[in-house]
Every structure is written in structure tokens, then in C-alpha cells.
Design a protein that fits this description.
seven-stranded mixed β-sheet; alpha/beta; single chain; about 40% helix; 26 helices; about 725 residues; six-stranded parallel β-sheet
Amino acid sequence: MSAEVILITPPFTQLNTPYPATAYLKGFLNTKNITAFQADLGIEVILKVFTKNGLNKIFDNIEQHHTDNADVLSCLVLRNDYVATIEPVIRFLQNNAPTLAHRIAAGGFLPEGPRFQQYDNLDWAFGHMGVTEKAKYMATMYLEDIADIISTFVDPHFGFSRYAERLARSANSFDELYLQLHNPPTFFDTILFEIIHQHILQHNPKILAISAPFPGNVYAGFRCAQFVKQHFPQIKTVLGGGFANTELRAVADVRVFEFFDFITLDDGEAPIEQLVFFVRNKITIEELKRTFTLVNNKVVYINNSKCIDYKQFETGTPDYSDLLLDKYIAAIEVINPMHSLWSNGRWNKLTMAHGCYWGKCTFCDISLNYIQAYEPLTAAVICDRMEQIIAQTGETGFHFVDEAAPPSLMRAVALEIIKRKLVVSWWTNIRFEKSFTRDLCLLLKASGCIGVSGGLEVASDRLLELIQKGVTVEQVARVNKNFTDAGIMVHAYLMYGFPTQTVQETIDSMEMVRQLFENDVLQSGFWHQFAMTTHSPVGLHPEQFHVTIVNNQIGAFANNDLVHNDPTGADHSKFGEGLKISLFNYMEGAGLDKPVHTWFKEKFPATTIPPNYIESILNNNVPLIANENHKILFLGNAPQTSFFTKTKKGVTHQMAALLFSTRTGELEIKLTREQGIWLTAMLQHMKENGEAIFTLTQIKENYTLSGLTDFELFWNNPPVNTLFEVGLLHI
């Protein structure tokens, strides 16, 4: 079947689920009746290599070129074991051979290379996760051992989630990448060429559009374009995606356009539509949208101001057709339930809103369109798209890939999911802001939210203010507790090396993180070193942060990262290994009693943070006092009400007992007979009206009209204010 446009994600992004950019664009092109085919070349290459035939070719290559290497012998000894087990393992990780989990987990089935040496005993780690998860982790280590063999002896650029990343990262000059592209094709290049050749012959496109979200996709993206230029010169090649949007905004090297006819920036819908019109000879080149191209051997940027971008509700539902959805590989890279979400499971990716509703963090590229232009969808549109994607893919898991999902929209989406009775699992990125109350977190949980990830960054109030994160460490701790108590896992993005950050602040930040893990309000995290970027407030105004840019020269290829000098801060390069190792242990519940400064080889000062700082915050409960602005929702089952008489000091009281049954147990409260009758009727009314939402004022008025008094005393104290446990929520 022919397609006017082929949309390509080059190797490699994720093995467990497709990167969503091409699905977004295909969904949009559907609304314009422009035929498109999409392919994730990463998973297609992996499925070619990780077979009996593919591994035999790998080992043949090793024997041919490395016979004088002593390390080859130990590698080749296990050749037959790897070849015999590779296809069953892949089927298992594709969820097509679940019973194999028992053989893998028991040991002795997989060849165990160096990756297995990091654990003497995996039973303790997976006691709470089960045999299948343990087997997935062992199978992942097995694949990583093979990947190490490949990168050592066959292709040094290989990596499961990136390929030749070094060639594109911080590459101001195109020279090294250009030189590599003129070397003979690598082992993986030849496989890539076979696959793309087949797709082109099958679909006969006019445009090949390549989305390169990360530096680790860039080399393979250029190789794809190079192959097309050599063998199908009539096809127009286009590069877009996250790498172009951040790194290529000032591209000027004409050699880049030996591979790509066009490079587009930011949202791809309008640019790709204009390119289709241009290839059809419907418009002139001057009418292109946010597009670099070569004119008279000079790079020019064309942005037709009359061509308006589409609103988010106009872009259509992401379309996952064509992708090999049943072939993706569910791996577990880290023994941590929250962390494993990135690599385990086939998640449909969606966004609740374009851009970031906060848009103030000084380390972030907030000047760029993908963050700056905030535009939320409605809950109804989001749930419509969820239902359409479920119908198409059969998958009910969603990862909302927002920069930071707005709490008010998350609440609306949760209510819409519950209203429609959708059974879904979802997770997203957030800011740890105070809007995430106990009851909102319970509502999100009820709708299927299983995890959130957010930026704690530097766990220091001084630096959080400098970052303009809009949160404090105390606030983050309370919000994390709300999520954790609701049964929602929490992952924190952590940063070190922000301008003016001292050694002591890094140690103290590390101690804050340790205590969050110790108090079980943080389940996962990742440290990364601060990098100054061209488009962030720090990069645009370094003097305001007391740093200087070492080299501000704009390159002809990629421009994003800036080298800077921080005269008042620490030598942050000394912290990376200790932070990584400590966090790895914390995520496994180990090393929490070890003083944080002892994780480093060098001598660092002890923390100045009291050892019970986070605990004292969490123990200082802030009562949730309802106010007239609150909306009240009841998600539980109406109670079974019975009546009884209670006598105290000779006085008889008519009482009511309300028994609430939940999926996990029962809760009984006792009220006066009149209060019990009123509350039972009110909750029944809310259930009969489809979990109707009432304002607190409306509930108070109804209570008063029933002849009852002292509403605040009734509502804000036990037993009524314990009913959040059975679904009576203030949101």
C-alpha cells in the first residue's frame, strides 16, 4: 500500500514501547487525508539482531576480526548457549512465553556474564515483586551482557536506548559526524538499510520524515537519509524532533543538507503539511513553515507567518497503526517498581497539555515553543483519545508525557475516567506543588494513577528559590507522603551542580533525599549534573547566577549546551559516582543508615541537616479543614445503616451505625440517628447521580434544611472526617 509520507524513528529509543512523535503526526495527517506509514526502526533492528541467525552473524564477525584477543575466548565459549536461548528469551520479554519465567528465575538456564556479578542473591530483591519480575530482570542482564559483547567487539556505538550518542551530543561542529557517515557502514547500518529499503519499496513515499528525539537517534537518522539519497534521490528527506528543536535552531553547515532536504522546528503538524503541499507543487518554497533548507547553496530559514499552527484539539488522536505493538520487549533495568515503568510494559503515550503551565524553572529551556506555549486539552478530549487508542491497540496503560501535568487538569481527567468507568493505568510528570492534597491523590489513585515523576532538583530551599521551582523541601515531603499514602509511587529527578551550589549544599541535599527514602515517601530517583543550555534563563542571563560562559561561539551544527565557569560553586565532577551509588542503594532499601558523606572516596563534610528533619515534617500533621470552596465527591459504596440505642449516665440516645464496605475491608462509624439518616441519604443521592460533585456550601445548606445544627463540628471532626478512607473526598 502506497503512502505519501513515511514517518521514521531511527534507532534507538525504548525497547518496551514506541516513542510517540510519529504516532502524533500520523494521527494529524489522518485528519488531512494525507496517507502515511510509520516505523520504529529501533525495535525492527533489535528483532533482526536478537535471533539465532542474528547472533550467529555477531559471533562470526567476532571470530573473523578478533582472533588475537584473549577476551574473545571467554565470549565465544558461551556462543552456543546464547544462540540457543535468545529467541525463547525474546518471546518471554514480549509476554508470549510467560511460563519460561520459572526456568529463568531458578537460574542455570541463561548464560550469566559480567552483568550478573552485581548481585549474589536476587531472591531478597524480588521477594515482593515475584518470579516474573525477577526473570525479566535476569533476562535484561542477559541482553545487556550481549550488548556489551557487541559494543566491545562489533560496534562501539551500540546501546539499547541510544546509538552513537557521543557523535551528536554537544556537537557544535558537524565534522566528526560527517566523517563517520563517510566511513563504511557498520554492522547495524547494513541491517538498518535492509529494513528501510523494504519499507520504501512497499510504500513508495514522496517524503521520508525522520524524528530524532535524542542525540542517540541522530547518527542513525542521518544514515537513513544518506541511504535514501543514494538509492531513492526522488524522495524528499526531512529531519525533525527534539534534537532539531533544541540543538539545530541555528544550523548553518551546508553539508547537513547533503542528507536532509529540510529540517523543521517545534510542533510538526503545520510544517509537515506545508512540505506535503510543496512536494505536490501546491505552494512555493517561501510558504514553508519553520523550515531550514538549502537555497543557492546557502542555508535559509523559512517561516511563513500566514501559516498558523493547529490547536491541540485539532491535531487528532495519535495513531499507533503500522507499529509492531506486539513485538516490543518488556525489560526491567533496575530493581525498583517505579523505575521499571520506563522499560517494563507497553505504554500508550499521550499529553494532557502542550507546554508547561509553570514555565519558570531557570535551568529549563522555557524560551522554546515546546515548553513556552502552554495549551491544555479538555478532560473530555483526553478521555476520547484514550478510548480510541485502547480500541486500536488493546492496551490500557498510558504514560502522559507532559513537561508537568497541571493538577487541575489531572483532577478533571481523573473525574472523567471515573465517570466513563474506564479501567486504565496511568502515570505522568508533575511539579510537587501543594495542590496535590491527600484527597486529590486518592482521587487520582481511584482513576488508575499508579505513579508520578517530578523534579525535586536540588533539595535545598535556597537553591530551589534560585531555580524558581516554586516549591520547598517541606512541601515536597508532604506531597510525596500524600501520593505514597494513596498508593501512588513517586520518582524524583535530582540535580547537582547548579550555579553557586557548594559542597555542603550537595551533601545536605543528599541527606534530604536519604531521609525521604528512609521515611518511605520516595520510591525512585535519578541524579543528573546540571548542564547549562542556550535557551534557559541561566544560559541567557548567566551573570544573574554569578557564572560566566567559557565559550559562547555559535557552531554551524548543534548548539545547546554551554560550558560555564562557576567561581563560587564546588567542583561538581567529584560527586557523580557517590551520588549514583548511594541512590542505587536507597532504591533497594539499602545503605540508609550510612552517613551520606561516606559514599565518596574523597573527604567531604558531614551533613548539617538534623537526622529526623523529614520525619518531623511528616509527623507534624496539617489537618485538612474543609472550606466553602471545596467540592465534595463520594466514590465509595453507600453504607448499610442500622439503628440502636445508647445509654450514658442515665440518658438514652438514639444512634445510627453506618457500615461502609470497600474492596479491601470495612469501616463503621456511629452518629446520632438524625445525622446518620441524613448522611446515608446524601451519600445515596451522590451515588445515584453518578458520583455527583457538590460544593461544601450546598451540602451545608442541605444539612441545615434537614433541621440539623453545628455542621462544622459534625463535618470537620471524627467520625465524618475519617470517611476519606471509603471515598468521601474534598477536591
